[in-house]
Amino acid sequence: MSIDHPPTAVSAEAPFLELLARDADAEAYEQPVRLARAEGASADRIAALDHAKLLALRVRAELEGRRRREAELSALFETAHDLAGLRDLDEVLQAIVHRARSLLGTDIAYLSLNDPAEGDTYMRVTEGSVSARFQQVRLGMGEGLGGLVAQTARPYVTDDYFRDERFRHTRSIDTAVEDEGLVAILGVPLLLGTEVIGVLFAADRRARVFEREQIALVRSFAALAAAAIDSAHLLAETRTALADLEHASEIIRDRSGVIERASDVHDRMAQLVLRGGGVQDVAAAVSEVLDGTVEFRDSANAPAQALERSRADGHAVPHGDDWIAAVAAGGELLGALVMRGHPALDPVDQRTLERAAMVTSLLLLARRSAGEAERRVRGELLDDLLDGRDHDPRLLRERAARLQADLDSPHVVLAAHLGSGAAAGDREGAARGRLWAAASHLAATRHGLAAERDGGTVLLLPVEQPRAEAELAQEAAKSLSGAAREPVTVGASGPVSAPAADPEAVSVGYAEARRCVEALRLLGRTGQGAATEDFGFLGLLLSDGRDIAGFVSRTIGEVVSYDARRGTDLVRTLDAYFSSGMSPARTKDELHVHVNTVAQRLERIGRLLGEDWQSPSRALEIQLALRLHRLGAAVER
User: Fold this and answer.
1) Among 72, 182, 405, 516, which has the minimal tally of Cβ within 10 Å of its Cβ?
2) Residues in the chain with pLDDT < 70?
């Protein structure tokens, strides 16, 4: 006899899927639950809707996060594109301020620059400002929040400007801020090396807490703004040099080659940025144009003292017969460009080497983002296999080939879950993040796929030897537990001979792997890895080719159905009876009922299962069916 799912479990997701499809506001997700309560729906139905609502809100938040990260990355690359083709500094700075305000959703964004001649700082670009006084304000060094940022070269944020005593308030600044109506302000420095040349701000006319990711985003825009200003200064210096060279043919002959090289390198690096070139491409371009040997080295293989000096002052520095230009992004040192065999380097060529180091840092950051994108692509391909969204073997092979995966070879599906109760709250979230990162790395190094699913991680890994599923599961459990710093339980499916030719086998394998995970948990083996072959006869029943539901139905189906129809508790009574050594006295203690109640229930069970239900052979089958029934219920949840 088969066991039907409750209607609530089947239909609860439908209204929330519709809300996800039309990108509804978060408040709209409460409506199906309120409507169900108003219609007097059952507690099970309301609980199912509540669970579906939480899952849908989590999916919505993930989609919004992805859209936000894609918008931020797109804006950064668009700004880098503007910088690569810099023509008008004001336009580039205005674009940076506009994008910062748009992505953070603030009321106003603005950028100030230091005036060394006057010893103060002035407003250069604003967007969203309505006060003429604010747009013309000048700040003395060390005054206001901007003065504190410029003085310390560190970002500062305040959620209530007028209540914040960390910086020096002055009448002129406070009046301008009050005139603009600002409350929450974030300011990050514009740095050239260690020199602060200005400050980029984002502000709101209401109290607001800026998140760490938002501060990092504004810092990225500030770095691009500083680069734009520096590039404009370099361009101005070049134009001034050209004007001077018009008056002396000898100077023109001496300098024209340098200017040509700088222009050539600028054009080449701009093209490299636009087409997504690599670090070695930048080194090769600079080597060719400057007629020398330029190579990229990681931090461990570059001269330490020279590298630190270059990072500190933001310029290339000599080191014997070589020149060292630090490749850095924010506070992170990524490596160095080393130009060998040029003890006397022209200042413009020196700047060219420095600009090449800056472009190299942008490409390294882009490559890092590409790695994160690859993890998403691997997850999307595995999600499509599991959900049956793409059944075209040719397309599946093409998508897998781009990830160096071969879906025509045998694979094993692994389900990995954190041990129950291993972590809670923020600790659990951090552990899940570490589990996902470790699983993604394992999939990439093994030429497989990985995705997050059902509160854990699922992997599709190639297997070279037959019957190696258990060993692979044990190895994965050990590796992932170490990386997550929490016990990770891993279940493995039987081999899937060719995922591209039979995508449905991947979904079947995942269900089998999850059953192995639940079996390990029920057997008290949390943190271990196993395949169905490790469970003996139970494993044969857990594997996909066995009719587990039929076995359970034939053995205890009458009792399960009786409980479902009458609302009784005979299955639990039967389970307690066997766990108590078939003693009614101990059974009544475990169930907290009278012994007569136990006797009545056992009599009812005897009528349902037959008079020989307590014989050794029947008792063994019933106990196995009870365990499988409990395991099936755990997997369905």
Assistant:
1) 72
2) 1-11, 61-87, 236, 241, 245-277, 330-331, 365-375, 377, 389-391, 420-426, 466-467, 533-551, 633-637
- What would the DSSP string read from start to end of 335-384? EEEEEES-SS--HHHHHHHHHHHHHHHHHHHHHHHHHHHHHHHHHHHHHH
Instruction: Return phi, psi of residue 170, to 5°.
Output: -125, 160
Helix (H/G/I), strand (E/B), else coil: 510: helix
- C-alpha dihedral (413, 484, 361, 87), degrees to nearest 10: 80
User: Which of 354, 359, 345 shows the shortest CA–CA distance to 280?
Assistant: 359
Pairing of strands 488-492, 449-453: unpaired
**Is residue 566 classed exposed, middle or buried when 0-12, 13-18 and 19+ CB atoms within 10 A define those classes?**
exposed
Of the candidates 267, 63, 614, 467, the residue with the CA atom closest to the CA atom of residue 259: 267
Helices (H), 1-88: 7-11, 14-21, 31-38, 43-84
Phi/psi at 580 (nearest 5 deg)? -95, 15
pTM of the model: 0.37
Residues in the chain, total: 637
Rounded distance between C-alpha atoms, residue 101 and residue 127, angstroms: 8
Give the bridge partners for 139, in sequence order: 121
